[in-house]
Task: structure prediction
Amino acid sequence: MLLPDVTILKTLLQAGDSFVSGSDLAKDLGMSRVGVWSRLEKMRETGFTFEAVRHRGYRLTEEPACLCESLVLAYLDIAGANGTGVFVLPEIDSTNSEAERLLADATETPFVVIAGAQTRGRGRLGRKWHSPPQGNLYMSFAFRPRRSPGRMQSITLRLGLAVCRFLNQAYAIPVKVKWPNDLIIEGKKVAGMLTEARVDADRMRDLVFGIGINVLGSTDGWPAEVAAHAARLGQYAPSSIRLNRLAAELIPVVAGEYAAYLENPRKPGFAEEWLAYDALNGREVTANRGSEPIRGTAHGIDTDGNLILETPDGRRTAVNSGEVSLGTGSVLF
Ligand code: BTN
Result:
């Protein structure tokens, strides 16, 4: 019964504080008023609260705090962003793995897999991504770029900056980018990104961009060393964040930036825009390139997306892989 629920939710969301009559909903859906009432009762069981007033109708007063497919689809429909396939799952091993399986099954791209929890969430360099249920987002976007890998080199930076910019502009949350794949606030990590791709000869067959965002979820139960370096968007948002709405909003943000990247992988002014949100600029950092750590002061990125470091001898060097930590230590999250 996904479609009626999406229509009901879309109508109630658009009505805001106003009531929508049961007969109007029934007419739109081509079902009886009892049918509408029974859908609302079912949705109540999943965390929705509806106010029902005789002769006036219904209004939505509370949304579930956890991921809900029909609500994500309703928000997406309101935004008019439906060019991306959407798969919403309560739990999965890893949304990146699920996206890979769907790609292998010839699923049309672009699509996004969103999960409420992951049992085997993975991060960069073989790390685990703690993915408890309730309040966080785990999303993987799948594309078939059909470009040479060299032309996709800075895709994670572009998509990450697009998400960062959106969170600043739409939610007034002071998120910054930490090269190459983190979003941080006041030095604490709120999101991590993992891009994985398969290449055929010299062409990219497909690409999965995974992002895990700590939105509202508690860090209880996380290993202490991870919790110490982590934060939630909700701690910094001036107003409350609705998880399902945020999930829906991020879909056109990422899909739109991906399309823009294919058009123009070396967007003029990108390095300057990066600087505006760059958490590392002017900071002493250590880049762990293989076994050889390089210390220096970060000075943004170059046009290929490499991190520019000024080493103590005054030379500038471009770092294109590895990990970066603030200061001289190598504690990474
Ligand atoms: C990192 O910081 O090391 C990257 C973390 C990426 C986590 C996301 S959560 C959604 C997607 N599915 C995964 O298994 N990993 C990514």
